[in-house]
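Table S2 (text version). Query chain:
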Amino acid sequence: MTKRTAALGTLAVIAAGLLLYAPSWKNPFVFDDVAKIESNPDLKLPWNLHLFFYPYAENAGEFRNDPSRPLTFMVYWLCWHAGSGSVVPFRVVNSLLHALAAVLVGWLAAVAAGRLFLKEPPLAVPAAAAFLYLTSPLIAGTVVYAYGLNDILSSALLLASLALLVRRPQPGPGTQAAAVGLFLLALGAKQSAIVLPALLVAWDLLVGGPGEVKRRFRLYVPLILVAGAYLAARALVFGGLGDLEGGRSVRGAGFYAGMEGPVILSYLRLLLVPVGLTIDHLPDAAAYPTWLRLAAWALIAALTAMAVKSGFGKRSGPARRLAGLAWLVFIISLLPTSSILPTVDLMVERRAYLAVAGPIIGAAGLAWALAGRSKAWRSALSGVLLIAVAAQSAMTWHRHAIYRSPEALWKESLRLNPMSRRALVNLSTYYSQVGRWDDAARTLEEILAANPEDGPAWTKLAVVLAQPDYAGHDDLKALEALRRGLDLDPTNFLGFFNQGVILLRTGRTAEAEASFLRAAALSPNYVPAHFMLGEVALQTGRIDEARAHYRDVLRLNPGDPAATDRLREIGER
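Corresponding structure-token output:
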């Protein structure tokens, strides 16, 4: 393949990616996009490294940058300022990086196939892998989800690092340094990039054999040192290696690991048959009996053992080695979030973003090997690949439409799991945003009927009851709902803030101020709490205190128009 052909192929993949994902560019922020991007005051501030590097203990509430993923949030900051808060730059960056990842998957497929089958593959091999990856419906939701940037950016950097390390049997010092640098950047985007050293060893074992692993050992040393230093720094600075954001929501390691066997196989099934996709999978423990969990892990262990054995087996043919490589890339990439290291959710499609590169690399190379048998095989496989890419493109296009409407997104989730609390909560939030108060109240009442001890649901219901344009508006009932909710969840800073708003409106100024102070103490960077403290101080004649609170608002959100206006008014008195 000439450089000109490779360049044209790269441009074709990028153009196709932009064309395929362009319809999603104006989709609204959804789910974690809202908390991590749209409501994040750090993104509105002028550039300052402390916005991205700070002790994790300061990250109170959800509305701050995640210091364990500084590179991701730096890109968010750039996107926010480039588009003045528009969603479009986030979508365009995701689309471009996804297309780049697809190009790298195609290039790796060509390298693996060429070295295993001992001849240069045609353009069809990298093209098939790139387009299968580009259009996969399983990972399309990651691309059209702004918060999915951490997976896309980390994976693109990791794939680029891997590509540098496998392009030659013995890469030079400059190439190796560049690969290590990309690895560091990948870790700065998402911690799951820690798998790069294991992926490189698996590649060398399956593509080159045990001798290759021995010859290239020096390449692993700096990667392992970087990984070890990263883990040590993470433990020392942030206080842990696993999920730092999940807190009390993180499952027990035993239960989580037991469930992940069937979940891993579900990712593989959704790659092959993308039916049942959703932003919010909630596997039911009852749906995975003990025998099924054990059987799933037994199958995973057997496939992994066979893959490793094919690397050591002297008689292992290239097809078997390629299949082994495909499986090892898949399973190794999933292990940080699908093993004994628990995180909040049992199953999230974006966790498979990097993992599916393995099966796709294997499929492209094996298809080429089969196509070489005869012209009939070549024609049949070409047709199958074209149909697969077309079908995947159509399904991915449909995913854009689902993500375009939060109501459609969460109703899709409810169709798969009718009692999904998170889907009901997010649906109620959407109804509240568009003023459909009756629907919001009904949805929250469904949650409370199933679990009357759900504190956050009580506080959200209180917000609905307090709306003046809601037919069932009742401030006393709203305050009672807030009391119940805060008794159940006394760390809910939004609940205290909303309680303060209602108390202030009903003339209970001192109680309102106490609620706003509590909200600010629980989440020191929550701008509205500081503003409302200024309002209370201003109403009660404490001008200096009001001025201090409005300045806190401007410190957290420079240029805030409401705080700026208040300070101007105070200055005129």
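Notes on Table S2: The mean pLDDT is 92. Residues 319 and 366 are 6 Å apart (CA to CA).
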